[in-house]
Amino acid sequence: MSLKTSVEYFQTLVTSFHPVVVIDTVEEERVQGLISAACNDMQMAVFEWSVAQGLMRSPDSPDHRWQNEYAPPGAKRGQALPKTAEPLDMLRHIQDINFKAIYWLKDFAPHLTDPVVARQFREVTAQFSHHRSTLVISGSGPALPPEIAHDAVYLDLKLPDPEELYTTVSEVVRALKGRVNVELTPEDIRALVKALQGMTLSQTRKVVSYAALQDGKLNADDVPRVLERKARVIREEGLLDYFPPETNLAELGGFEGLKRWLGYAKVGFMPQARQYNLPAPKGILIVGIQGCGKSLAAKTIARQWQLPLLKLDAGRLYDKYVGESDKNFRRAVTLAETMAPCILWIDEIEKSMGQTSGEADGGLSRRLFGSFLTWLQEKSQEIFVVATANDLSAIPPELLRKGRFDEIFFVDLPEVDERRDILQIHLGRRQQGTTAFNLDELVLATDGFSGAEIEQAVITAHYRALYENRPPDTALLLGEIKRTVPLSVSRREDIQRLRTLARERFVAAR
Ligand SMILES: Nc1ncnc2c1ncn2[C@@H]1O[C@H](COP(=O)(O)OP(=O)(O)OP(=O)(O)O)[C@@H](O)[C@H]1O
Ligand SMILES: [Mg+2]
Question: How confident is the model at residue 117 (pLDDT cuts 50, 70, 90)?
């Protein structure tokens, strides 16, 4: 889907007598691009209005008559028609214009809460349904009163496709000619365009110009820079956290079962798998006891496969408007798709899509869950989903059914060998050679401990050593371990219940 698709759709709406088109976006440059492309084609006049400027002929208006009598001679920009800043005046003015045109009303929806404005609006639209003029309302989450929503069509502005991005890159290159050296092979151009996917055309222009002007060169080195910039854009949107592969140092002890499976699954991403028409792996669900490394496992997969990791913070999907959470979810996965191949990590999935999800009411989370299942079924092959969950009873059973995920793993408390691994990782991270410790003794003492509890004991022992100004040793660590009451003791029943449920149904991660 591309911007071109949106333009064609918009044209169809206009020619089929749709009086009101609503575009939910704050990126007015994109709306402008859409309207000007559509109207140039259809040879229709364009007006724009904002409460600050009033109504004026748009500079993009194709008949070049925008310099109306109110503009001073030689003006670069049209001037507003007098007394059109007030919504009611503007609507009355439009009602008197007797040729077909597009009227772009910026941030107009809030004005429709005034009953007089709303009524005048309806009278204008009633007239439009006969002569093919269209009102376009843009703004963030524009909510319309029901009597107006009835006549309105929402238009989803598509992001530019690779061809459009390519054209924009070429334009930038042309504009910078003489100032930068362009050293791009066709291969580099493809990589650059892929890196730009998910950005708007204006973001593309900015990012590419910046990358080129920074060192006077546009070459393969700019691809990671563009990706970095895109990661920033993604973070700023606030729906996804981004962990680039270069900075991911996750180290997971144990999890032999999971690691083995990942080794197999990787084959599914190879071109040979495509030759046999094998589908790429969709994703996994990791269920397990708190602090036993589920989140760490998600990071480790990204590290092992050297892929970018995107974490979906499902709590942030919820918005005060019903329907927004769906939209936010679609936005998040669209962004993830532009980063593909990548890993999409949905941490604590039961909290956002479960049966009893926090702040949101049941209906909302169910709908979101529905969107998620559909997406999981239809998603691009290059996104691998890793979902994690603690509370099995809150997970909708549909999610556990075969075929949703490639595999569901259960993470139990670490056993002897794994505790040894975990101790080694965390002692190693504190610059300690493990020879100074009696690992056998420590492994025995940490029976029933989660990875997080082992890590915590290592950390506290090191604090104590620093405080007492002595090197950390086995005795110090054993002291900390003895002082800890692990969850497996304090919440014995809960853990036992989870174990019995999960052990018989899911594959052991270790
Ligand atoms: N197998 C392991 N290897 C190395 N470190 C581990 C392991 N398991 C847990 N840890 C340590 O414990 C910390 C907590 O683990 P993590 O956050 O992955 O647990 P979790 O299962 O996601 O817990 P929660 O249910 O609370 O989200 C990790 O940051 C890591 O330092
Ligand atoms: Mg976690």
Answer: very high
> What is residue 411's three-state secondary structure?
strand
Which two structure tokens, joined as six digits, stand for 198? 């998910």
E-assigned strand segments in 108-239: 134-139, 152-155, 181-183, 217-219
Nearest to residue 344, comparing CAs of 377, 312, 378? 312
Mean pLDDT of the chain: 86
Please check whether residues 280 and 397 belong to one and the same domain.
yes
For the CA of 425, the nearest atom of ligand 1? 4
CATH number at residue 422: 1.10.8.60
Position in ligand 1 atom list of the atom nearest CA 293: 18
State whether 27 and 109 are in the same domain. yes
Ion ligand 2 neighbours (CB, 5 A) are 294-295
State how many domains the chain has: 4
293 within ligand 1 shell (Cβ under 6 A): yes
446 Cβ closer than 6 Å to some ligand 1 atom = no
Digit-coded pLDDT (tens) for 156-213: 887 788 888 999 999 998 998 888 898 888 889 888 998 898 788 888 998 999 999 9
- The predicted-structure confidence for 369-410, as pLDDT tens digits, reads as follows 888 888 888 887 789 999 999 888 888 888 888 788 999 999
Check pLDDT > 80 for residue 439. Answer: yes
Q: Which residues pair with 240 in a beta bridge?
A: 312
Ligand nearest to the CA of 254: 1
Q: Is the CB of 290 inside a 6 Å radius of any atom of ligand 1? A: yes
Q: Which domain holds residue 183?
A: 162-237
Residue 262 and residue 382 in one domain:
yes
Kind plus residue range of the DSSP H or E element containing 54: strand 54-57
What pLDDT does 321 receive?
59
At 106 the pLDDT is 97
Polymer length in residues for the chain: 510
Q: Is 253's C-beta closer than 6 angstroms to any atom of ligand 1? A: yes
Q: Report which protein residue has its CA nearest ligand 1's atom 6.
A: 451
Q: Which of 285, 287, 289, 295 to mutate to test the pocket of ligand 1 (most atoms within 8 A of CB)?
A: 295
CATH number at residue 147: 3.40.50.300
The DSSP symbol for 469 reads T
> Measured between alpha carbons, how far is 141 from 161 in angstroms, rounded to an integer?
24
**pLDDT tens-digit readout, 57-77:** 887 666 554 444 444 455 555
**Distance of CA 294 from the midpoint of ligand 1 (Å):** 6
| Per-residue pLDDT at 71 | 47
Beta bridge partners of 106: 138
292 lines ligand 1 (CB under 6 A): yes
